Amino acid sequence: MPELPEVEMIKRVLEPQLTGNTIDQITITNASVIAHPTADKFRRHLCGQVISSLSRRGKFLMIHMKSGDRVILHLRMTGCLLVTPPEYPPEKHTHLIFQLSAGKELRFSDTRRFGRFWLIQKGESDSYSGIHKLGMEPFSESLNGAYLEKHFGKSRKAIKKCLLEQNVVAGIGNIYSDEILFKAKIHPSAPANTLNAEEWQCLAATISKQLAYFIEKNSITAEEYLEGKGKEYRNTPFLRVYGHAGEPCPDCGEMLVRTVIGNRSSVSCPRCQGIRRCCTYL
DNA sequence: CCCTGCCTGCTG
DNA sequence: CAGCAGGCAGGG
Fold first, then answer.
1. Does the nearest atom of strand C lie within 7 Å of A5's Cβ?
2. Other C-beta atoms within 10 Å of A244: how many?
3. Of A6, A137, A196, A205, which shows the fewest CB atoms inside 10 Å?
């Protein structure tokens, strides 16, 4: 499920709840969610450690320990993190529980079990999680039209597929690739090598503006987050094309169309994104 | 490069 | 019941 705006929201909600807490005990009910090292080592190395901060890179979350060790996790499609009181009713498909000091628990649940955890010890290099393969953060100053054009300008592949490449720009998934392309008025199936310099520049600007907008729309308190079981994303009402196939385009009224690009469904407006138009953010 | 597998649950 | 779901790694 979660793409960059959701992962950023989760990071912001959880960080104040977790920072300063000691991990007293870890219960692993499904060892397959621990990708590195073994579940046993994961548990033994982390027990007794103190959490110092959280960070995000692309769609990955990192929980930093005072010791310099760090837990890296990826929620993939259905992963969910909750900080709860110990007696709080457990979610179905809970695979991992960190019992924390101050009578709290950090729980990981994941229906489809695609989510993964890694423990990287201080001084150990992380060749496991995939973070080392990630490309630029969308909010980096260096993300500009020239950067995108350098990577995709000669490619014949659909621009939507390009936006999903985590090794170029990290954090964009299927939802926000559609939203970004709609806002930039570029058709998702347009071959990358047909975009001009102005469109690359527009796309770069739109990526960061749209992601920032959806992070802002996702703003939520810790209490509200727990009430929604970590599954309610407040920005969904603001999505303009994703999930709206067959409905009128919010800009021009033409019917939004669902297509399949690289085995992923894509929604776009054939009129607004059909012909080249000027960009909102330029 | 495209394709499949990984999983469960929901929808038509 | 088949088909689909917002992700990614690995294999051909």
1. no
2. 18
3. A196
